[in-house]
Amino acid sequence: MQRFDVVVIGAGAAGLFCAGAAGQRGLRVLVIDHAAKVAEKIRISGGGRCNFTNREATPAQFLSENPHFARSALASYTPQDFLALVERHGIAWHEKHKGQLFCDRSADDIIQMLLKECDAGQVTRWQPCCVRDVRPAPDAAAGRPRFELDTDRGPVGAHHVVVATGGLSIPKIGATDFGQRLAERLGHRIVPLRPALVPLTFDPAVWAPFVPLAGVSLEVTVSTPMPEALQAKRRKAAPASFVEDLLFTHRGLSGPAILQISSFWVPDEALTLDLTPQRDLAVLLKQAKIGSRKQLSTAWGIALGEAVPQRLAQTWLATQAHAVPTLRPDALLADLRDRDLEALGQAANQWTIVPNGTEGYAKAEVTAGGVDTRELSSQTLESRRVPGLHFIGEVVDVTGWLGGYNFQWAWSSGMACARAL
Ligand code: FDA
């Protein structure tokens, strides 16, 4: 049996980062990944440029049944710490909007940096290699390894096992629920998994009028009620809400606004979209009516303004006729009642629609849910049930917003664990 101080399962963002840091502390570290290539998710991230952190990351941008869990790891290894590492490796970077930091050249720069950090810690890497079993060793007290692993390359003994196998998103590049299943088998509760940062879909009959709008994009405010599981106890939380770009697709909605809100959306719940966050349409329509000879469709296009593409403005208006029959697009504005115009304006400032699902793990950037944080130490990411077993990165029930937060969690949780090994 080969022996290591630490075996890290999963050579993705969190696993490689943790392995390098642990190796540099003098520990004998083995990283195992079942995929031939490491860190494929980093490679495809941020449109190939990897949004590797967010300068403004705080615990407030993370979802978890325990909203305080991420606090300690995020405070002990910050976006500025990771940026300093990126700069030490001479990687050129730039800031997009809202604190998001990207590589100038390629996401591969981050992968190469992580591999160099592993080399500096003399980390052993086995890939592709499958882990068939992980079990706490029966006689660990007698100075023997605490864990035994069966792998494609033979049995391995380790004092610590770090599970960094991520979530279920993008199965075609090797995502599995290995970590969650292992955790469950060893007695940990799992917060149910669901695709997050994912496009939302609608009933095809409801969506038919909007299909020709695929590709249309605009800035909106989108909101949905805060799911009960994410609400602080005994306090009714405000709805989750984002002001971001929305993108129409053939099957529904996508774009940053929808990816963000999807992490909070629960089946059968509605989304509320404000198509003109800067304009009170009820007021504008009633003002436009005074002395007007215009048709509703013309006045409507003007009221929505340039921020809303005309194709969307007119399609949306046509779909509302069923709600208020007098609101035919060719009706004269002057003939319409104020209260009908108010209803129309309010309907666009609070467009309420109910998705019928998501595009699933094939399109989800992350997996929400995972190993229940109540089973883990927030300082070391070590299991409270199985000493020496750690869970880091996306396998844990901590999910970041869109914008570099999920990688920051991978780095912060990976470092918190490495320092404790
Ligand atoms: P990660 O998924 O990185 O690594 C898990 C590793 O475990 C993989 O190498 C996998 O092969 C391995 N593994 C799985 N099962 C195994 C098994 N049974 N045995 C052995 N190995 C196994 N985030 C962000 O902050 N900024 C961004 O720009 C993006 N962009 C982005 C784009 C796309 C398309 C996706 C899908 C995701 C993002 N993300 C992102 C999210 C980010 O990629 C993600 O949160 C982190 O990679 C999670 O890091 P982990 O190390 O936890 O898992």
Automatic annotation (TrEMBL):
Keyword terms: FAD, Flavoprotein
Residue ranges of every copy of the RsdA/BaiN/AoA(So)-like Rossmann fold-like domain listed in the record: 5-419
Gene3D superfamilies reported in the protein's UniProt record: FAD/NAD(P)-binding domain, HI0933 insert domain-like, Translation factors
Needed cofactors: FAD
InterPro entries linked: BaiN-like, BaiN-like_dom_sf, FAD/NAD-bd_sf, RsdA/BaiN/AoA(So)-like_dom, RsdA/BaiN/AoA(So)_Rossmann
Residues covered by the RsdA/BaiN/AoA(So)-like insert domain: 194-366
Record's protein name: Aminoacetone oxidase family FAD-binding enzyme
Organism: Aquabacterium olei
